[in-house]
Amino acid sequence: MFLFPGKNRPPNIIFILADDLGYNDVGFRNPDIITPNIDKLARKGVVMTNSYSTHVCTPSRHALMTGRYPYKTGMQNFVIPGDAPVCSGLEYKFLPQYLKSLGYNTHAVGKWHLGDCRDECLPTERGFDSFYGLLLGGGGYWNHTYTLFGAYDWFNNKDLDLSANGTHSQDLMVDRLSAVFASHNREEPMFLYFAPQNPHTPSEATENFLRHYPSSMYTEIRRQYLGLVSGLDWMVGELLELVIANNMLDNTYIIFQSDNGGDAVEALNGPYRGGKGSLFEGGSKVVNFIYSPLLKKVGYENNGWMHITDWMPTIISLAGGEVPLVEGIDGINQMSMVLKGAESKRTSMVYNIDRDFDIRIPVTGEIGVR
User: Fold this and answer.
1) Is 10 within the bounds of a domain?
2) pTM (two decimals)
3) Would 367 be classed as within a structural domain?
């Protein structure tokens, strides 16, 4: 149902989902991290200091797209393996499908990781007009090959794109973002789901960002990770320039979040304990902010509870629609909190319920500053 009041056009909505970004691995929290574009948006927007996701990739992405807790939908057991005949349940309506009914053009660039075992599971069958990127959990940034069994994984819509081989994911994604904006009819609203690999392993940062982190000060694993974080920031900056160049900024919401905490081997999630794969807050309390000239209150930190499931009904509400109560989602519409700084409507939250899987992950290796 369309409920957008008093406007000729619904707003554009951009959701940026970083991959394994540490809570303390952004410049606005840690001055050693070079992320000027992310910092600018966060400081001019609203930083959600009590925002939670789930502990790993697939459950978080499923929660975002469906507005449902993974444990209720059979998606709580870690991640979908690359060769598994599984995908996020086809009975669940995805966020872009709701937005399509409100007249949105919908595009996905980056990582999917919600299953690809049959055509019906693919992004272009689940509400996206276009998709460009990787379907599995994470491959090489240059060769786009899934590490566990050597499968090449880079797609343009449903088609394997072998021409991407040898070009870094950062450059490929920025080029695709440019193409999306070039072909967009600005008389129609856009929903862009940008889910880059950065800074997920493997550690393959580009030299232009590694120079920010000298080897005399950082271990190599930490240095590579931070190079990917700064690469992520560069992509965010390029995306912002596209929004501005296309005269869309005044009517656009930009939401930034990590899918989970950073891997404790390479990231800093302090002051919280643990990291990716754990149910400690270091694994589930994430970087999250929203920026837009449409916000009524900006330049502050909001301490209210926000869960990743909340973004689905909140985004639909910002777009002028609503999720029917009969659909039984777990997400809560937090538009008043996001838009005006009102108190959070959330009073409880489930981390996970999984009686069949032991999520204890051994942590080895050395991180941080020498």
Assistant:
1) no
2) 0.94
3) no
Contacts by 35-39, CB closer than 8 A, 24 or more apart: 35/229, 35/230, 35/232, 35/233, 36/233, 36/237, 37/233, 37/234, 37/236, 37/237, 37/240, 38/232, 38/233, 38/236, 38/256
Based on the residue annotation, tell me whether 113 is a catalytic residue of this protein: yes
Residue-wise pLDDT tens digits, 139-151: 999 999 987 778 9
Question: Which residue type does 110 have?
Answer: G
| Identified catalytic residue from 57, 62, 168, 307 | 57
Give pLDDT < 70 ranges for the chain.
Answer: 1-8, 326, 356-370
**Residue 83 maps to which CATH number?**
3.40.720.10
Q: Would you call 57 a catalytic residue per the annotation?
A: yes
Q: Which of the residues 113, 168, 184, 307 is marked catalytic? A: 113
57-85 confidence digits (pLDDT tens): 999 999 999 999 988 888 777 787 777 88
User: What count of residues does the chain have?
Assistant: 370
Full residue range of the structural domain in which residue 293 is found? 16-340
Structural domain count of the chain: 1
